[in-house]
């Protein structure tokens, strides 16, 4: 990626990025993801962009945001221009590129799947076009034996043979084994890093595949940042968001980043079908994931078999009913009697009736809450008790689908305008 750093990206970096070799500047209080999202919403409502915070009318634009965070805090963040220029020089010397959520070239998969959970800034090294190729996410434990190492490398080779990109976390163990196997097989790799992007960009072993356009590293965190457990946990959803399907090679039971990321996919996000290595030596964690709805890995023996397994799983997910198939609004009742139309689940569906019901409610409220409604109005709209309406609204708030307005309390869908 050779595009110059956009003005939007410059502004977002000033608001959210450390700019000091992976360490936060003690004199500033960086905006968190949720705080930056509040800024972005205000800017969208006023038909402005982050770049306007450092443009010719910056004082007036900053004043729009000041009541939320305080003028002093915003001024201190936006005054870090010199630090930003130093950081940009450092990144350029290491072939690290930067793109923000407000840029058209930001990966579409992250925007469409993660929405406001998408990182405001992405740092990367290598061919960014690989980020749009999908592929197989391969994840697992850091500490593995030689047998499991060889097994995972073979998965990478098979993915390369099937012309499927391998997406992984670039951590030692399963991640690196899958990536190594894919590169040895002539395939492409996306490494989503939680730390040390700068070091990976300069590593001698990575130089050839980076230059050949077969490897890209990407991270939501400062290129010089060290290891952080929270960052490692949070990047899991980014790995899944880049992929078409996922394979958990090995996972601890009810602990660790692999387990947490897989459970998040199975129970809440559901971006991709999740496979799990099965068999006598798979371990307790893998067995538990299968019980939670993951699919048994078919152990393909060729690239063609792997491609068939992935294509079938992805097609099956795509064939599931969309949210707007299930409607509960009495306004759409064909006979006007206030009864929701009858729906039926597809045979073999792994989703519960409660999941389907919530999807239907979410679909309705996305449509109806373009104008704010209070809890009583939502309950009347859905023909349910106020307590039930509050439960659903609470979950939609947690998922970032709606926002809560104060004085008086009302709920409104978060704008579907392009993310900033």
* Count of discrete structural domains: 3
Helix content: 40-55%
**Cα distance, first to last residue?**
20 Å
Rough outline: globular
Q: Structural class, please? A: alpha/beta
Mean pLDDT: 86
The CATH level-2 architecture of the largest domain is identified as: 3-Layer(aba) Sandwich
**Rounded Rg:** 23 Å
The CATH topology annotation of the largest domain reads as Rossmann fold
| Strand order in the largest sheet | 1-2-6-5-4-3-7-8-9
What is the level 1 CATH name of the largest domain?
A: Alpha Beta
Number of helices: 17
What does this structure look like?
By secondary structure, this protein is an alpha/beta fold. The chain folds into 3 domains: 7-94, no CATH class; 127-318, Rossmann fold (3-Layer(aba) Sandwich), CATH 3.40.50; 323-413, Arc Repressor Mutant, subunit A (Orthogonal Bundle), CATH 1.10.10.10. Helix content is 47%, strand content 11%. The protein has helices at 7-16, 33-45, 58-69, 71-78, 81-93, 108-114, 146-161, 174-184, 197-202, 204-212, 229-242, 256-269, 284-291, 303-319, 353-368, 375-382, 386-399; strands at 97-100, 121-126, 136-140, 166-168, 189-192, 215-219, 245-250, 274-276, 295-296, 402-405, 410-413. The strands form 2 sheets. A 9-stranded mixed sheet has the order 1-2-6-5-4-3-7-8-9, sandwiched between helices. A two-stranded antiparallel sheet has the order 10-11. Strand 10 (402-405) and strand 11 (410-413) form a beta hairpin. The protein is globular, with a radius of gyration of 23 Å. The two termini are 20 Å apart.
């Amino acid at each position: 990626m050779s595009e110059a750093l956009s003005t939007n990206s410059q502004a977002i970096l000033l608001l959210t990025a450390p700019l000091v070799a992976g360490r936060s500047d003690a004199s500033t209080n960086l905006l968190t993801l949720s705080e930056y999202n509040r800024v972005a919403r205000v800017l969208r409502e006023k038909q402005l962009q982050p770049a306007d915070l450092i443009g010719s009318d910056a004082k007036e634009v900053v004043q729009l945001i000041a009541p939320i965070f305080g003028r002093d805090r915003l001024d201190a963040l936006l005054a870090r221009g010199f630090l930003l220029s130093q950081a940009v020089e450092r990144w350029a010397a290491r072939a690290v590129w930067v793109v923000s959520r407000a840029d058209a070239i930001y990966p579409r998969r992250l925007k469409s799947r993660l929405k406001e959970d998408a990182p405001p800034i992405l740092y990367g090294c290598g061919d960014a076009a690989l980020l749009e190729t999908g592929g197989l996410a391969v994840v697992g434990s850091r500490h593995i034996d030689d047998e499991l190492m060889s097994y995972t490398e073979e998965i990478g080779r098979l993915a390369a043979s099937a012309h499927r990109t391998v997406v992984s976390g670039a951590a030692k163990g399963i991640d690196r084994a899958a990536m190594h196997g894919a590169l040895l097989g002539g395939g492409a790799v996306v490494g989503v890093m939680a730390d040390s992007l700068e070091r990976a960009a300069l590593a001698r072993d990575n130089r050839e595949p980076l230059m050949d356009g077969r490897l890209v590293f990407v991270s939501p965190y400062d290129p010089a940042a060290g290891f952080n457990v929270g960052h490692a946990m949070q990047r899991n959803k980014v790995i899944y968001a880049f992929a078409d399907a996922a394979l958990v090679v090995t996972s601890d039971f009810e602990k660790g980043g692999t387990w947490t990321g897989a459970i998040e996919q199975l129970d809440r996000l559901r971006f991709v079908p999740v496979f799990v290595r099965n068999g006598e030596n798979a371990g307790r964690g893998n067995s538990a994931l299968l019980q939670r709805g993951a699919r048994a890995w078919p152990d393909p023996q060729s690239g063609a078999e792997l491609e068939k397994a992935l294509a079938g799983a992805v097609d099956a997910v795509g064939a599931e009913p969309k949210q707007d198939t299930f409607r509960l609004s009495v306004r759409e009742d064909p006979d006007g009697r206030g009864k929701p139309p009858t729906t039926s689940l597809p045979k073999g569906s792994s989703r519960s009736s409660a999941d389907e019901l919530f999807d239907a409610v979410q679909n309705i409220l996305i449509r109806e809450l373009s104008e704010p409604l209070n809890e009583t109005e939502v309950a009347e709209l859905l023909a349910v008790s106020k307590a039930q309406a509050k439960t659903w609204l609470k979950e939609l708030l947690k998922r970032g689908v709606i926002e809560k307005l104060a004085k008086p309390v009302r709920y409104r869908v978060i704008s579907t305008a392009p993310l900033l």
